[in-house]
Every structure is written in C-alpha cells, then in structure tokens.
Design brief:
Blueprint: H1 21-28, E1 32-36, E2 39-42, H2 44-63, E3 67-68, E4 74-76, H3 77-83, H4 85-88, E5 95-97, E6 103-106, H5 111-121, E7 130-139, E8 154-164, H6 167-187, E9 192-196, E10 206-213, E11 219-224, E12 230-232, E13 255-258, H7 265-272, E14 280-287, E15 290-297, H8 304-311, E16 316-317, H9 321-328, E17 343-347, E18 356-359, E19 365-370, E20 380-382, E21 400-415, H10 417-421, E22 425-427, E23 433-435, E24 437-444, H11 445-455, E25 457-458, E26 461-462, E27 473-477, H12 483-498, E28 503-506, H13 512-522, E29 526-530, H14 532-537, E30 540-544, E31 550-553, H15 555-573
Parallel strand pairs: 3-7, 15-17, 17-20, 27-28, 27-29
Antiparallel strand pairs: 1-2, 4-6, 5-6, 7-8, 8-24, 9-10, 10-21, 11-12, 11-21, 13-19, 14-15, 14-16, 18-19, 21-24, 22-23, 25-26, 29-30, 30-31
Helix pairs in contact: 1-11, 2-6, 2-11, 12-15
The structure holds one RNA strand of 78 nucleotides.
RNA sequence: CGGGGCGUAGCGCAGCCUGGUUAGCGCGCCUGCCUUGGGAGCAGGAGGUCGUAGGUUCGAAUCCUACCGCCCCGACCA
C-alpha cells in the first residue's frame, strides 16, 4: 500500500477525550475515529488490525472443530422473553419497537438466537457435539463506555456456542475451547492468564476469563506464586478461617457507648481502644432495589459480586448514604447487626469474632461486647469479602499476589439453563428428548487490539506484536526527488509485495522527521529506510521497532532477512 | 443513574471571573519560495451559528435558566 493514497490521519497532539494509552495511540495513529460515545469508525489501518485478530481467531476456532456462521444483530423481544432475559438483562440491552409496535433488541450476545437455531436444526445426538461461532458487531448500551476500544458500546466480538449430549461431553468441549483460547492469545503475542471467574449475567456453572496483563486493566486478579491458581478477585475463594475462639472464653454483656461524630472504623477503634479487626463493619447496598446489609470485619472490604451471588440477587448497587437513609430511616454511620431491620449477609470471618464493636443503629452510638450468634442471627453467612495478599491460596496455601488485567476472553459452561428455558432438546440413543448441555465462549476482538497496545508501547507510539501488525514492514523513501533512491525504494517495495509481505510504502512528500515519527507511532515491526545512506553506499537501513536495533545492509539482504524472519516468527507463533 | 469536569476553526487551547470595536494563539490545511536523516523556515491565505434554546441588558463567547453532547470516578462487561 502506498501511504500517499491511504487515509491514515496521524496527529502530533492527543485529542482531549482520551485517557488511557491505547485510546490515545489509536486516535493519534489514525486507527479509529469516534462517532458518538462508545461507537467508533475503524479507519483503514484500524480495520487491518481488526482483521488480523479475527483471522487468528478464525483459524484457531476452525482448527478446534468449530464452524463459523453469522447470526442477526436485530432480535425479537419474544425470544428473549423465552429465556427470561428480557426482564433480567437490564438497560444494557438496547430495546426498540418496529412499525407494528413489536419489541426488538440489538444483540449484546447470542445465546437466544443460537439456542433457537439448535432446537430447530440439531435434532439427534448423532449431530453432537456441535460448536458454532461468529465474528460480529455487538451492541451493549454500557452505563459508561470508556477508554476507546476497551469498553465500547458497539464492539466486535467472537462468540461461540457448544452443544453436547451430556455434562461430561460438555466439559470436553469446554476444555477444547480453553486450549483454543490459549493458542489464540499466544498467537496474538500477548502476555495473558486464564483465571477462574464469576459467571455474571450470562449465567452457568463455571467459567474462566482470559486476562491480558496490563496496568490499565479494569479487573484485579489474584495469582498464586507457588501453584498455578489464578482467579478474578470477584471470584477468588477465601479459605474459611480456623475457628480459634476459646469455648470457655468469657462473653461480655453488650454495652452502649456514646461515639458522637465517629462514623469511620478507624475513629471508633481509636476511641474504644480496639483495633479495626475488632469492629464489625456494616455496609448497606441495594439488591434488586431492596436494602441489604453486608457485614465484614472492620479491616476488610465487601466484594459486591460475592454478595450478589450469596443472596441470589440479579443486581447489587452501591448507593449514597442519603438514599439509604431515605429508604430505611437508619442512622448511616452507626449501623450494626443487632436489631437491624434488614436482611443481613455476613462474612464467615465475622461469625468468629468475640466481644466486638459495632454500630448501635442509633445516631452517635456504638455497642461493645457484641457476639455474633448470641446477639444477632444472620440471614446469609459465607465468603463475602475481597481477597488480599495476606490471604492464602485456596488450593495450595501459598502466597498470593494481585495484578491488573484486561478481560479479552471469557468461557462459560452453561449447562442446560438456556436449553431448558427455551425447550431446546435433541433425541438421545434411547429415543428420549434431552436438553442440550451448552457452553459459550467469547472474545472481545476489538478489545484485543486495545489490550495489545496497552501491553506494547513506548513514548514514540505503538509496538505491534508481528501477528497483529496492520502492516509488517514500512519502507521509507527519503529521497523522492532522487531517481536512484526512489527506484531502489520502489524495488524493495515490489520485491516484498511479491513475497507476500504486507508492506506500507511511505512515498509521501514529507520531510524525513515526519516519516520517522509516523513509522514509530504506527508500530510497524520492520522499517526499511532508503535515503542518503543508499545514495552513498548503495545500502538501506533496517530497524526493528521493538528493540530499535539498526543495521545497514543491501537491498537484497534486507528483503531476504525480512521474508525469512517474518516467516519463522509467524510459524513459531502458530 | 449518583458525584466531578468540559463544550470557542479539523485538532490542542486562551479569552469568560470584572459584558463594550473586525474573537485570538499553536498545530494542521491551501499557495509560493526555500529546505530534506527524527514532526524545519519565510511570506501570503482559507477556515468560527463561541454546543442549542430562551432570558437579563443599549450591548452577551462573557451574566441567568433549561436542554443537548462529551470526558473522568462508581455499579456493568468481550
């Protein structure tokens, strides 16, 4: 491709709207332009990068035995009523009506459509297992789209679905995808981890997320430093602490203490001459619109996803103190479990606390000598708090570390949730009707690009891993008016093209500085410069974007080196 | 949706507080000259409903009200 003919609007300055590095660079390098919040146009280079990722995804999915199809983006509300998600999915589902006033939505995911297809077309156990996928634009009306391609409302996703005869067979399909996802992200040249994850609104029995490790990640992961345990903190199980209460220990009577103006755990602890871990922290959230209390030790944090799962809510939200007060008339800041007129979910650790301190549900007052079990009875008890690096690995007891990650893939074992709800069955060997055992498998194709950039950049711009680079080589012609230089540049451009290399030929009438800056910004792995060195010595300069390593070699050597290196590097990643 | 911020040329910003001529600057764009190894220089030029609608005023980018859009923090998620 000739740069002079390409719509590739790079900028020196960063648009004010961008916050994270991938968003800034995608805009500056002319990959994307925003249409409206969370909705982007892919310019030619952005599209090329997108196609690179899709291609790898397709190859690996096909290799794993999955078949590509393409489903509709527009789906009727009735289908979503069958699965129960028309009510459950919430405002993220963009709904609208057609001219007959019938309900429709834009597909945020395709369990309903694929299950409908399966019940029509997969009639016999002989057709199973079947694994179907598509690469398609999805729309989710995110509460807050942000960070460019990282969390758009419209985004490109690979979604795949497996159908099996039994739980065991479904697990085989799941493992197959688990392996395929490893191959995909390895081939993309990304540093990633598969972690145990919460199943969220898709539902199902267990799942793994594939996380690209990057500081700007929106998720936090716990990783065991000894075994291979890794999990999202939303999911990471905390080992139930040993009960080391002294059975003969004295239980004090509850006493009310005046603590005016002391709402924070630390203030109360100081005042009462105790430590935060002697205090029961009482937090109130709205679970499906109803206030619910969550209790953790004063030095712990509530993990909202765990709370949601524990109480079986569809949605748990954090609300401000005044909203809670308006709903409950309770003195926020002085809340405690004793006599609290709300459903109470309690972290397992709290149940072992002895003679502790909590709010008194009375403004300016706390209680001491509170004993769980004696003084209050919880509605739910379990693992409720956020894991920390002080906790032990749930599988081996080893030390844990925390790291940030970007979720680029998520696989779920769905079981029969959708097939039962939608009456999707097949005939088994014995002639009986059985529901499909399903799995679903997503990859944020457009997000992979953002994640790759978050992980691969420097102060000059993007550093694409070779498999994702929109062009593999950029040839700079620094002597447009010099016939010898131009002939040589054209020659190597044509030579590389002939060898099947993806080359961007910078034939613009720009000064050398601009061409160098743009080449770096775009992140193209190989740069070949034809300029004054060629005029003098008949040699070109070759530079690797990632290392900055530079060599001066002949035209022929440059072409051979590039062809060979690209060939072996891509072969290795496969 | 709650909290915060911003909307002035394609992009980045100043001007607004304290209302008063033709609304500025840098980048980019166009023309010419010049220059050619890390985003050059000179000269000339095009480009603006100051987010929208009301209001206050002799007079509004500037003050007031409402609305719209965008960005950041939170819940959500590929």
């Amino acid at each position: 491709m000739r740069y002079s003919k390409l719509l590739l609007p790079t900028t020196k300055e960063t648009p004010a709207e961008a916050e994270v590095i991938s968003h800034k660079l995608l805009l500056r390098a002319g990959f994307i332009r925003k249409l409206t919040a969370g909705v982007y146009t892919y310019l030619p280079l952005g599209l090329r990068a997108l196609q690179k990722v899709s291609q790898i995804v397709r190859e690996e999915m096909n290799k794993a035995g999955a078949q590509e199809l393409l489903m509709p983006m527009v789906q009727q509300g009735d289908l979503w009523r069958e699965s129960g998600r028309w009510q459950k999915y919430g405002a993220e589902l963009l709904r609208f009506t057609d001219r007959h006033d019938r309900d429709f939505c834009l597909g945020p995911t395709h369990e309903e459509v694929i299950t409908d297809l399966a019940r029509r077309e997969l009639l016999s156990y002989r057709q199973l297992p079947t694994n179907l996928y598509q690469v398609q634009t999805k729309f989710r009306d995110e509460i807050r789209p942000r960070f460019g391609l990282m969390r758009g409302r419209e985004f490109v996703m690979k979604d795949g679905y497996s159908f099996d005869v039994s739980d065991e067979a479904a697990e085989t399909s799941y493992k197959n995808m688990y392996e395929a996802y490893h191959s995909i992200f390895n081939r993309c040249g990304l540093k990633f981890r598969a972690v145990e994850a919460d199943t969220g609104s898709i539902g199902g029995s267990f799942s793994h997320e594939f996380m690209v490790l990057a500081e700007t990640g929106e998720d936090t992961l716990v990783i065991c430093e000894q075994c291979n345990y890794a999990a999202n903190v939303e999911k990471a199980a905390i080992v139930s602490p040993e009960d080391n209460r002294d059975p003969k220990g004295e239980l004090f009577d509850m006493v009310e203490v005046k603590t005016p103006g002391m709402k924070k755990v630390e203030r109360v602890a100081d005042f009462m001459s105790v430590v935060p871990s002697d205090i029961i922290k009482t937090m109130v959230y709205l679970a499906d619109g109803e206030p619910v209390a969550a209790l953790v030790r004063g030095d712990r944090e509530v993990q909202l996803v765990k709370l949601k799962n524990m109480i079986g809510a569809d949605e748990v939200e954090v609300v401000d103190d005044s909203t809670i007060y308006d709903m409950t008339k309770l003195p926020v800041g002085y809340l405690g479990p004793v006599g609290l007129p709300l459903k109470v979910a309690v972290d397992q650790e709290v149940m072992q606390m002895v003679n502790c301190v909590s709010g008194a549900n009375k403004k300016g007052c706390h209680l001491k000598g509170v004993n769980p079990g004696r003084d209050f009875t919880p509605d739910f008890v379990g693992d409720l708090r956020q894991i920390t690096t002080e906790d032990a690995c749930p599988t081996c007891g080893g030390a844990l570390s925390l790291t940030e990650g970007i979720e680029v893939g998520h696989i779920f074992k769905l079981g029969t949730a959708y097939s039962e709800a939608m009456n999707a069955t097949f005939q088994d060997k014995e002639g009986g009707e059985k529901p499909f055992v399903m799995g679903c498998y997503g990859i944020g194709v457009s997000r992979v690009i953002a994640a790759a950039i978050e992980q691969n950049n420097d102060k000059n711009g993007i550093i694409f891993p070779l498999p994702l680079a929109p062009f593999q080589v950029i040839v700079l012609n620094l002597g447009l008016k010099d016939e010898k230089i131009t002939t040589a540049a054209e020659q190597i451009y044509q030579e590389l093209l002939a060898q099947g290399i993806e080359v961007l030929y910078d034939d613009r009438d720009e000064r050398p500085g601009s061409k160098f800056k743009d080449a770096d910004l775009l992140g193209i792995p190989f740069r070949v410069t034809v300029g004054k060195v060629f005029a003098k010595e008949g040699k070109v300069e070759m530079r690797l974007r990632r290392t900055g390593e530079t060599s001066t070699i002949s035209l022929k050597e440059a072409a051979d080196f590039i062809v060979q290196t690209i060939g072996t590097e891509l072969a290795v990643s496969k």
